[in-house]
Amino acid sequence: MRRERGAAVVDFVLVLVVLVPLVLGILQVALVMQVRNTLAAAASEGARVAATADRGPADGAAATREQIGDAIAGRYAEDVSVRAVSIDGAPGVEVTVRARVPALGLGGPSIEVEVAGRAVEELDR
Q1: Using CA atoms, how far apart are residues 124 and 116, in angstroms rounded to an integer?
Q2: What is the spatial distance between Cα 93 and Cα 87, in angstroms, rounded to a whole number?
Q3: Which of 74, 67, 75, 70 lies closest to 117, judged by CA?
Q4: How many domains does the chain fold into?
Q5: 121 φ, ψ to 5°?
Q6: Sign of the CA dihedral 117, 115, 83, 88?
Q7: DSSP element (H, E) containing 106
Q8: Within a domain: residue 125?
């Protein structure tokens, strides 16, 4: 009985050494995916705004930047570009957002994320 004294503490520490990095890794992946999905949604909405009949590419870029700034942070909205594309033969607009997202903690190394949203242009009638 005396030889097993403190064994629970050692078991607990050994489990924590494995469990804590695993949980933190899952959390970090979730945060990166949240930022990526938010950027993709903002790019798609910006493309829809730019494709409306009474709006232009500058309006789509501004809408994208505004949504990113409201949802996460304005620093992710620094590299937004809009260009005309063909979508299945129809004229369209593509909004691309490029951002650096921290991949390992807030101050750690970051990865480049690039997302794009597309929309078919409305025709004036």
Answers
A1: 25
A2: 8
A3: 67
A4: 1
A5: -70, 145
A6: negative
A7: none
A8: no
In the chain, the amino acid numbered 63 is: A
The answer to whether residues 46 and 63 touch, using CB atoms and an 8 Å cutoff, is yes
- Residue 118 has a pLDDT of 96
Segment 35-48, tens digit of pLDDT: 999 999 999 999 99
Domain with 104, as residue range(s), is 2-120
Strands annotated E in the chain: 79-87, 90-102, 110-120
Residue 19 domain-assigned (yes or no): yes
Hey, what are 61's tokens?
Answer: 């870029």
Q: Chain-centre distance of CA 117, in angstroms?
A: 13
Q: Give residue 2's pLDDT band: very low, low, confident or very high (50, 70, 90).
A: low
Residue whose structure tokens are 């063909």: 86
Model pLDDT for residues 81-99, shown as the tens digit of each residue: 999 999 999 999 999 999 9
